[in-house]
């Protein structure tokens, strides 16, 4: 067995992050933006990111392939060995530019340095076998086959096939296996010109006239980004805020019930320059970060440390945005570890809190006021069923179709004509709007509108 004496900085960083994700509740996105990764040279930083996200996206399929090559396929492996095998398997099966020998040797060394000198021989043998076997072919003819081929939990895929059909589910899964497009919000044409001058290649947004897709270049190095003239924000997320902003009267009061990190709040303020906005967040650290981000809005912006489900104000606002915490199954391309942590039993607990937040938000608006309820979940328990339960339990409330808002945003030039047409086609029979990943290039979203009536 040949082993190298050192492991590249990128693979060391990827190993540490994957171990942290495997053994705790840490998010890969936070770790990849941490100091240790930021300190790497750009090529190492990019490789570390590709390794972490690739392993997390394809973990189910990687495990399936290398476990079949173990002397005891059902053997329970130590976390360090699992991670070393996954890193090696991902490079062998999905990264053509990396020589198999390098992938094998550095994975062996990672296992050795983690204190598993004896097991490193097993890592070497399994990965060398895998390099000879190569990628397997998978069919996608039914839910179990799609789940394995696209490395998603079988229970999750089976539900989506039941709710949305096989082809939309396949599109959702394929979207979850790719790096999400990098969408930005451009408020000033001069800022866009500055990005172009800095060598950033942009394309128009799919839905919104103020959105752009970054094709190439690093916008985080530009003055326009550092000064807040352009912001990173998924186009679906921008759309949620645009729809909410269109519901507010000119000088109304707005509640952003679950506001951090504040991207949607900024759009609410941009579209309603004379409105007073109260932004709530239950985490003190996230609230502090949001305060800094929203400081430029001045006195018309109030940031509160508050649990949105316990809001006590009655009839105080004209509009409430309830973009509630959820399972996040619409964001698997961006947050791949969700698929490994979420269990179907988590959904009722999520829904209980979501019902409480929506009920509190409805109580907070005046008669005639409206609440936009949204999630980045694909699960009916968190979407239609939450709205239905709250409507059944709350008097003087009815739901409104999203369709008139789409027409209004098109008239104002906020939506592109093609985007408006595609959004109309995604309105459900009950008037809710659903963005499915793969159908759109956005994260998945559910959007419903409820109005408090006078009687």
The CATH superfamily of the largest domain is identified as Vaccinia Virus protein VP39
Given as residue ranges, the uncertain stretches (5+ residues, pLDDT < 50) are none
Structural class: alpha/beta
Q: Please tally the helical runs, counting DSSP H or I stretches of 4 or more residues.
A: 20
Let me know the number of strands: 12
- Percent of residues in beta strands? 5-15%
Q: What is the general shape?
A: globular
Radius of gyration: 24 Å
Structural domains: how many: 4
Q: What is the CATH domain class of the largest domain?
A: Alpha Beta
Q: How confident overall, as mean pLDDT?
A: 95
Largest sheet report = 8 strands, mixed
CATH topology grouping of the largest domain: Rossmann fold
Description:
This protein has 455 residues and is of the alpha/beta class. It folds into four domains: 125 residues, NusB-like (N-utilizing Substance Protein B Homolog, Chain A); 34 residues, no CATH class; 51 residues, Sun protein, domain 3 (Alpha-Beta Plaits), CATH 3.30.70.1170; 218 residues, Vaccinia Virus protein VP39 (Rossmann fold). The chain is built from 20 helices and twelve strands. The N and C termini lie far apart (79 Å). The mean pLDDT is 95.
List keywords for this structure.
455 residues; alpha/beta; N-utilizing Substance Protein B Homolog, Chain A; Alpha-Beta Plaits; 4 domains; 20 helices
Secondary structure blueprint with pairings:
Blueprint: H1 9-23, H2 28-32, H3 35-38, H4 42-67, H5 79-94, H6 100-113, H7 117-133, H8 143-149, H9 154-164, H10 166-176, E1 182-186, H11 189-197, E2 201-204, E3 211-216, H12 223-226, E4 230-232, H13 235-245, E5 253-256, H14 263-271, E6 276-281, H15 284-294, E7 301-305, E8 317-323, H16 338-341, H17 346-364, E9 365-375, H18 384-393, E10 397-400, H19 403-411, H20 417-424, E11 433-435, E12 445-452
Parallel strand pairs: 5-6, 5-8, 6-7, 8-9
Antiparallel strand pairs: 1-3, 1-4, 2-3, 9-12, 10-12, 11-12
Helix pairs in contact: 1-4, 1-5, 4-5, 5-6, 5-7, 6-7, 8-9, 9-10, 13-14, 17-18, 19-20
